[in-house]
Amino acid sequence: MSGETPDHRSLVDSPPGSAGPSGLIGSELVPSASHAFDTAAHASPVARSQWALFRRRFLRHKMALVSLGVLAFLFIVCFGANLVAPYSNTEQDLLLGPVGPRMSHWFGTDELGRDQLSRLLYAGRISLKIGIAVALISTVFGTAIGAIAAYFGKATDQTLMRLTDLFLVVPAIAILAIALERFGSGDTTIILVLAGLFWMYVARIVRGEVLGIKEKEFIEAARASGASSTRVIVRHIVPNIFGPIMVNATLGVALAIVAESTLSYLGFGVEPPQTSWGNMLSQASGYVGTDRAYLIYAPGFAILITVLAVNFLGDGLRDAFDPHTDRHQ
Amino acid sequence: MPSMLTYISRRLLFSIPVILVASFLLFWMVRSTFDPCVKMRASKDVEAVTRCETRLHLDDPIPTQYLGWASDAAHGDLGESSRTNEEVSAMVPRALWYTVQLIFWGVLISAFAAVALGVYSALKQYSVLDYTFTGASFVGLAMPPFWFGLMAIELLAIMPKQWLGLDEPLFYFVGLHSGAEKGFGADYARHLVLPVMTLTVQIIASWSRFQRSSMLDVMSADYVRTARAKGVPRRDVVVHHALRNALVPLVTVMALDIGALFGGLIITETIFSIPGMGQLFVRSLQAGDAEVLVVWTVVTAGFIVVFNLLADVLYGLMDPRVRVT
Asked: Cα dist. A88→A83, A92, A110 in Å?
């Protein structure tokens, strides 16, 4: 492996879609190559806090840093859209109608003369909100299920993991669409339904991690000194597997944004007047092959860039959380 | 190999309850969301609703309804579509045939491309091309598939047609055949290019990443070093020692992914108007066609289970250590 290479090219080594079905299996079967940093930089035996070590490792991951910047920028312009957007969200200019990109309208306008850049920023709020909420909910729930299954073992483990398997078997998009048909497609519903289809991946990974550390001495010590199961899990186990959990949470954000846009494209996503990037794309999809085809580019790029940045960020976090990247040299 | 037989039969036994429970839950979900007699209710014939309700036992509790449905299904009666009044048992195989064609070509191309890219990247680690492939696969994985499809139509079919002033686009983007054409000729190929591209982008990106990291692992294994040390040419080591072993995990992942494809081509089929399983699903959902939706979800879940099983079996065949557990 690349043990002696003074490098941090983790993005080359680990498939980014690790939360997805194939990537998940992959990471279980083939532990991705471990990555090493230049040891000379901290040869001195200065004690560093966990957080300082984490920061050092993260700051070296250039793509992750750039991605963090890109994401921060996207957040600021989207959630501050009422300040930065050149036009209001709903402002129509029927006399102007659909025009291609130009100085007054960078990304052009749609058939109602609405400025695409402004709509893109407002739509970003919904897309980003859905992405983060889904990641948060599915991570918390999946962590709980995975940790409980692994910690208590036996029948609890069997029951919870068979439940997880069952959720993995059902065709996700189909279930999503049917559920949205049933419960309506407000953004809360979309968030809950998407979270309901993502938690299994987190649960499986967390279970594996917990199985790995629950027999360690410090857990035994905590139990021997009278800590309750809840306390052991929350205070001792979860903080120790925080890395893999965070990495998967970032991947969850990416998956959720793409899933939401896909649903919108099929006509089951958020409904007007709310607009997400997927929604804009689905409205534009009818114009492929006409002179308004420019409408398909911007929302797609917005999704692409966000998902790319989130994936790189996850990659940086994976390295930063992984103690093998520099301490044991 | 008795151990292999035990292994397979145990896996097989495990998957039967999964299918049954999943089909019950799916049945429950669809039945409680959609009214299978919705069309009858719109008609003036009051008797029709009663007939439909009695036929489907809608007054019974869900488990009883499920047993009735399952026993009918076991006898080959999958019900009738409320959208087209056609037998579901005829609609699903017809749609499946289109999807299977897409999966076949998609998987074939993806497998060769992914192995080639992955092996090259692993052997020439950190070379310019390795970085290029890595970058491309990151983009491929981050790209929403339907956006890729739309862009492909715009950039590869429509724009070249306009620029070159052709009567017909080079690649078609509606269906798998035009008009009266049949068979697997040039017309078929021109229809296939764009949909197959759309569905392979993410697969190639993820499989080639996977192949690369598994190849890297194998190349640093002791037996590869030993083979090199005793003088086996690098080429032979790569092909006979490394690649053979590096393919084991990929084959498993492929089996899992293919299983998921049977329900996962909704996007590709919608964009390119191919009447496969994905389109059947979208149409049935929009029409609230409960009978088709039940069968569709169960069949798709069945494919996932079968291919999961296949993945386990293949893994057991290729890696004898797995069978013990």
From this structure: 10, 9, 14
Number of domains in chain B: 2
Confirm whether B162 is domain-assigned.
yes
Residues near B311 by beta carbon (within 8 Å), at least 6 away in sequence? B251, B252, B253, B255, B256, B259
Segments forming the whole domain that contains residue B317: 1-56+80-86+288-325
Which A residues, 254 through 313, put their C-beta within 8 Å of a C-beta on chain B?
Answer: 254, 258, 261-262, 265-267, 278, 281, 285, 288-289, 293, 296-297, 299-300, 303-304, 307-308, 311-312
Coil, helix or strand for B80? Answer: strand
Q: Which residues of A touch B162 (CB under 8 A)?
A: none
User: Which residues of chain A are within 8 Å of residue B147 when distances are taken between CB atoms?
Assistant: 261, 281, 296, 299-300, 303-304
Check residue A215 and report its DSSP letter.
T
Residue B146 in any domain: the answer is yes
B268 with B317, same domain: the answer is no
Tell me the per-residue pLDDT of B226-258, one tens digit each, with 9 for 90 and over: 999 999 998 899 988 899 888 888 888 888 888
Is A305 within 8 Å of A77 (Cβ atoms)?
no
Cβ neighbours, 10 Å, residue B50: 13
At residue A329, does pLDDT exceed 50? no
Averaged pLDDT score across all residues of chain A: 77
Query: CA-to-CA distance for A171 and A176, rounded, in angstroms?
Result: 9
Instruction: Please report, as a single letter, which amino acid is at residue B262.
Output: F
Q: Are B169 and B270 in the same domain?
A: yes
CATH of the domain at B230: 1.10.3720.10
A16: number of CA atoms within 13 Å, CB side?
Answer: 32
Do the Cβ atoms of A293 and B282 come within 8 Å?
Answer: no
Is the residue at B75 inside a domain? no
pLDDT band at B62 (very low <50, low <70, confident <90, very high): confident
Identify the structural domains of chain A with CATH numbers, from first to last: 50-81+108-328 (1.10.3720.10)
